[in-house]
Design brief:
about 200 residues; mainly alpha; 2 domains; two-stranded antiparallel sheet; about 40% helix; globular
Length: about 200
């Protein structure tokens, strides 16, 4: 982990992002996953009274968790930002219909950007998740038309308690991406690729 220039938090090092041909600094995806991992480890240790924890490890992990950024930054159009970089770089932009929702992994299937951990109120986070989902579209775009991205969107909408959007996205995935036997049509002309619907 390395310090962040202006916020005093720590972030994970630069990584290559699969959807972009560049190195990206402090992705929300990594931050959310590691924050949840550290939280889970500490919670597990405290819930096992018979376990004698390594106090140095617990102290270091607690300190690291305190300094670790949560991967929750709200951008110029009220979206959850995908990277901790200024909006002027242009990586988070409105109506980017990219198939991935990596920056929402802390919303679903994780929990690291829910209000009880992040210091934001619940309506602020829900509003930003909603903006991110609307901006990413329905899972059909220049690089998107598999069932898994639609099912992931459906689950995110369901967690927002927006049953109409959740149902619509799931129905759209079934109509567009699944054969009558329930298997993916994503690999109709390729080797089998059965990740579809695993996210739901």
């Amino acid at each position: 982990m390395s310090p962040t220039r202006h916020s005093g938090t720590r972030g994970l090092c630069t990584r290559v992002y699969p959807g972009k041909p560049v190195f990206i600094y402090k992705s929300a995806h990594y931050q959310q996953l590691v924050h949840q991992l550290f939280t889970n480890i500490l919670s597990s240790i405290s819930s096992l009274p018979s376990l004698e924890p390594d106090t140095e490890f617990v102290t270091n992990l607690t300190k690291s968790l305190t300094l670790l950024g949560k991967g929750l930054h709200i951008g110029s159009f009220n979206e959850i930002k995908e990277w901790k970089i200024p909006d002027s770089f242009g990586y988070d932009f409105l109506n980017d219909t990219h198939r991935h929702l990596s920056h929402l992994v802390g919303w679903y299937p994780g929990y690291s950007i829910s209000s009880f951990l992040s210091g934001y109120n619940n309506s602020t986070i829900q509003s930003s998740v909603r903006s991110s989902l609307y901006s990413r579209g329905n899972g059909t775009g220049p690089d998107a038309d598999a069932g898994w991205e639609k099912v992931w969107r459906s689950a995110c909408w369901a967690l927002l308690n927006d049953t109409d959007m959740a149902y619509g996205e799931l129905k759209y995935a079934i109509q567009r991406n699944f054969a009558r036997n329930g298997l993916s049509m994503y690999s109709a002309h390729s080797p089998p690729f059965q990740i579809d619907a695993n996210y739901g």
